[in-house]
Amino acid sequence: MTDASFDSRTTTQDAEFGDYFALLKPRVMTLVVFTALVGLLAAPVALHPFVGFCAILFIAVGGGASGALNMWYDADIDAVMRRTARRPIPAGKVTGDEALAIGLTLSAFSVVFLGLATNWVAAGLLAFTIFFYVVVYTMWLKRSTPQNIVIGGAAGAFPPMIGWAAATGDISAASALMFCLTFLWTPPHFWALALFVRMDYDNATVPMLTVTHGRRATRRHILAYTALLAAFSLALGLTQVGGPVYLAVALVLNGLFLKGAWAIWRRDETAAEADNFRVEKKFFKLSLIYLFALFGAILIEAGVDRIGGFAWV
């Protein structure tokens, strides 16, 4: 950790179960579980329900382990950012040593048991995801480059690929495009947030794009990545996991997302501050709906295919 003055070994309050659970970043885990489940169910190989449940459980535990290790390392900057100051370590509820022990233990547990329950391709992808998020993103990129969220976004994009690999034992064009869907969604999602919480990153000296290049450049980047995202999300609809439902949802949502990105690009900073970044906040909320709706459409397509398959038996 970069700030030696932040002593994460001591705590002033007794921790409760909820404090330890908060280390796992449960809101982020929701996205991990959902996209991994979609990847598993969209795969052409059906797992036994119990094996599938175990696979999703271990992927979720691995995601939670990453969150705990991220909070352990980032406790110093979490303490000075308004939106993270109440996390368990800066709030004095859990020590850094406890978070480190929990993160390492759950990491090993999740990888080994995912391998035993499914296959070692999926386990290897989970291990790489944890390593990438903790070492490549948290320890290296986050504090060194304004492209942190772009490259680091790969860690959050792996779950559907892991779910697919848990069922099939391999990687396909469809699972790679599901990876790209989340990977390209991450920058406009987080940069929209950064536009209206820039002071947090200023105070923490995190080189977010809004800090290093300004809001004008960030707005251009949001538009460019949204255009790329639209292209890849539509390409996913042409793979084996796509179909008419997915393509219809993708066309509507990409239209709305592009419209929102265009509105953000055209924004004047004075006007944005005057209305408290209303357009940026609206785009950020839309980004949450966007990803869940597209993966939900993939899930619907998978259900339709399964029902159609049963009809022919």
List keywords for this structure.
313 residues, mainly alpha, single chain, 2 domains, 15 helices, disordered C terminus, Tetracycline Repressor, domain 2, flat
Task: Tell me about this structure.
With 313 residues, the protein is mainly α. It folds into two domains: 13-169, Orthogonal Bundle (Tetracycline Repressor, domain 2), CATH 1.10.357.140; 172-313. Helix content is 75%, strand content 0%. It contains 15 helices and no strands. The chain has helices at 17-22, 26-42, 49-73, 75-78, 96-117, 120-140, 148-157, 159-168, 173-196, 198-204, 209-212, 214-236, 244-266, 269-274, 278-311. Helix 2 runs parallel beside helix 15, helix 7 packs across helix 9 (173-196) and helix 13 (244-266) packs antiparallel against helix 15. The protein is flat, with a radius of gyration of 20 Å. The N and C termini lie far apart (59 Å). The model is unreliable at 1-5, 8-12 and 307-313 (pLDDT under 50).
Layout of helices and strands:
Elements: H1 17-22, H2 26-42, H3 49-73, H4 75-78, H5 96-117, H6 120-140, H7 148-157, H8 159-168, H9 173-196, H10 198-204, H11 209-212, H12 214-236, H13 244-266, H14 269-274, H15 278-311
Helix pairs in contact: 2-3, 2-8, 2-15, 3-5, 3-6, 3-8, 5-6, 6-7, 6-8, 7-9, 8-9, 9-12, 9-15, 12-13, 13-15
The gist of it:
The chain has 313 residues and is an all-alpha fold. The protein is 75% helix and 0% strand. It folds into 2 domains: 13-169, UbiA prenyltransferase (Tetracycline Repressor, domain 2), CATH 1.10.357.140; 172-313.
